[in-house]
Amino acid sequence: MNEVSKKFIPVLKLSDVVVYPSMIAPIFITKSDATIAVENSLLTEDHKILLVLEKSSKKSNEPQEIVEPAEYKELTEFIENSEEDLVHSLEEEEELKSTDNLYDIGIEGKIIQVLKFPDGSVKALVEAMHRVKIHDIEYNEELLQAKYEELEETAVEEDEKVKALVKYTLERFNEYIKRTTKINMDSFMSITEIQSAGKLADILATYLNIDVDEKQKVLELLNTHERLEYVSKVLSREIELLGIEEAIQEKVKYKLGKSQKEYLLREKLRAIKEELGSEEGMDELDEYKQKIEEAKVPQKVKEQLDKELSRLLKMPGYTAETSVIRTYIETVLELPWDKKTEDIIDLERAKKILDEDHHGLKDVKERILEFLAVKKLSEKPQPTIICFVGPPGVGKTSLARSIARSLNKNFAQVSLGGINDESEIRGHRRTYIGSMPGRIIRAIQDADAKNPVILIDEIEKMIKSHMGDPTAAMLEVLDPSQNSNYTDHYIDLSFDLSEVFFIATANSLDPLYKPLRDRLETILLPGYTEEEKIHIAQGFLIPRQFDTNGIKEDKLIIEESAIREIVSKYTRESGVRELERSFAKICRKFAIELVENPKIQVKVNAENLSKYLGVPKFIREEAEKEPQIGLVHGLAWTEFGGEILEIETSIMPGKGKLNLTGRLGEIMQESAKTALSYARSNYEKLNIPPDVQEKYDIHIHAADGATPKDGPSAGIALTLAIISAITHRPIRSDVAMTGEITLRGRILPIGGLREKCIAALRSEICNVIIPKANEKDLQDLPDYIKEKLNFKIVSSMEEVIDFALLNRK
Q1: Contact present, 22 and 128 (Cβ < 8 Å)
Q2: What is the mean pLDDT of the chain?
Q3: Which SS3 state, helix, strand or coil, does residue 746 take?
Q4: Helices (runs of H) and strands (runs of E) counted in the chain
Q5: What distance in Å separates the CA atoms of residue 653 and residue 170, rounded to the nearest whole number?
Q6: How far apart are CA 776 and CA 255, in angstroms?
Q7: Which pLDDT tens digit goes with each residue over 230-289?
Q8: Helix (H, G, I), strand (E, B) or coil at 167
Q9: Residue 250, CB-side half-sphere exposure with 13 Å CA sphere
């Protein structure tokens, strides 16, 4: 005999289910003392709990003998009652704290998982481990607890008699399955592999539709041979009952008319619903059926929905699968399979809306008008996938909204920044818990039309990982030849995306997957000039901040001089986000003054701006305004717009070492070496000592050392800085330059000219040196840039030296 446990553990009372060792049972709990038992078990390290059956009040507490079929008066109770999934439901009424009505043989279990529902009920998943005998059962306040003694089975050696009993019992169970529709044949296939008499008896007892007291007796029988023998007798009785039922049905069988059959079925369903205490189940299914019939969806979709609804009708309402099917049906029905918005193709209206919402952006607006013109002339769908590329804050997202408004299309947005899972695009298959459609289908749902404008934001910031490559998944979405039959993994049905107007945004196309980049029509949105920022501030940003902060225009006036001061000394950006934050800060400061003095009126100008924004953040040092030896202004282009790149060069005694600092990239380091080689190879023209590299070290540094820098366009700036440092000739401080240099001193073309010119204007530099090959790009620059800048067109390094390098003092 095993020893009785020293510690008390919680007891969970069961009323209509018996669990056997090595089985996992979901148990629904609504009663307070049962909830207390589960919660206390979870507080223990091993989560142990005792499962004990309550004795039936209608039957004797003594062990029951097998009842013969003739003594069963209520035949239909054995036919209609089933015990699926071992689900246990505890009554809500509080009962007296009595332990006399509990069996003394139970199960030692372990709680694996607990789910709590909004109505206060609990579902516990319990793994049954051993048969136990209950000792010293008592209530500790509200908690029912007991000690226990683990019981050992009396196993019989597997002789021919035991094998014959096992074989006979399996044959009888096979016959039972064939006669009843409540057990799947797959279950029998798995049971046939069991050779242990005790385990076979336990499993068969769970399948049989018998009284719980009889199941309790199976639990109490420790001799495995006697246990299987008992189950075999019960099984024979059940088979006999099924035979009697079939005979009765055959005798009373008659032909029902269609209306009679429908009436009887509905009455039976109503009775079941009343028994379950729910009137909503069938109403919801009827509603689904009506929605499917009325839905304007393709025939294949309707067939799939009917199939899912048929599955739902056959399932009990409390299983997890029913929730999955309901969500699926609702998701598919919510999709706009045949719902469109009527496009308004009016070029004048579209142009007016685009001009109202955005200043400048001529190329973008022309492309939208082109799209409208073609759509008006052609009835064929125009697959349009535009990608706006530009630095942050230039209006890429707001422009997409304006396009949707000008076309009278619904708008939805999909943010892809940081996405590293392919399923986020294609959707999750329904086999997974918490599965849902992909972001594209969800955007279609949000737009509530099959022809919306969908903004795919930050398309270049998707990340490939072990969960798949989301950029590859986007290929199907953005390919006009494929997306007419786009299949999301969740809905598993084809959806037509060919009428969707896709607009992507990116800060740079360099990180983007090349096949995906090939599907995009790229439109560059460069940074704004000072004049454009002033216009945007006066027309959009200031009125918006006044409205946001509740300030009237006659109370606060922000003059143009203040706006220019903010643009030049408080912000340095390609877009206008920081500029708008500055206006917001002014409004908040003024709001305090207005609350304290409601009659106050304020004009903010360049003189009193520091009162609201503090000291300027960006001021050019005095030294920079004077020509310096070894200091040159280069022009660089980044994904955030154009920037001034200050390059410093120093020469010092040494052994010809070239030091490069300031986080220069590989290409820029090669440009520096090329620049030094050019200077050394032309030492006679430049009046450079031939032994300069043998006696001196050269150090080149690019300011703002924390920012990585790369690219060949700083070649002429690096060359000029080296020559200036060696010859001690100063460089003009009012000149900025860009261009790639070769060993022979030729100047090669560069990109991002507009952004670089804007950066020069921001830094109040009026002379810009550009390669002759970029002269053709000047016609694309706005007039006010060409008016404020003096462009020096060069094709060789000699021309750069003559223009930017001053004579030695």
Answers
A1: yes
A2: 82
A3: strand
A4: 29, 25
A5: 99
A6: 92
A7: 888 888 888 888 888 777 776 665 544 554 565 567 667 666 766 665 444 446 777 878
A8: helix
A9: 6
* Cα gap 712→670, rounded to integer Å: 8
**Residue entry with tokens 């340095």:** 572
Of the two residues 16 and 457, the one the predictor is more confident about is 457
Token pair 């199941």 is at which residue? 215
Q: In this structure, are residues 279 and 270 in contact, taking their beta carbons and an 8 Å threshold?
A: no
Report how far residue 444's alpha carbon sits from residue 450's, in angstroms, rounded to the nearest whole number.
Answer: 7
Cβ-count burial of 468 within 10 angstroms (0-12 exposed, 13-18 middle, 19+ buried)? middle
Tokens matching residue 483: 């997306």
Contact 555, 600 (CB under 8 A): yes
Strands 735-737 and 631-638: parallel
Q: How confident is the model at residue 768 (pLDDT cuts 50, 70, 90)?
A: very high
Give catalytic residues, as residue numbers. 713, 756
Q: Where are the alpha helices (DSSP H) in 487-618?
A: 514-517, 530-536, 542-549, 560-565, 577-596, 610-613
Cα gap 723→680, rounded to integer Å: 9
Give the H or E element holding residue 644. Answer: strand 641-653
N-terminal to C-terminal alpha carbon distance within the chain: 110
d(CA 213, CA 220): 10
Enter the pTM of the model: 0.57
pLDDT one-digit tens code per residue, 415-459: 988 888 888 888 888 877 778 888 999 999 899 898 899 999 988
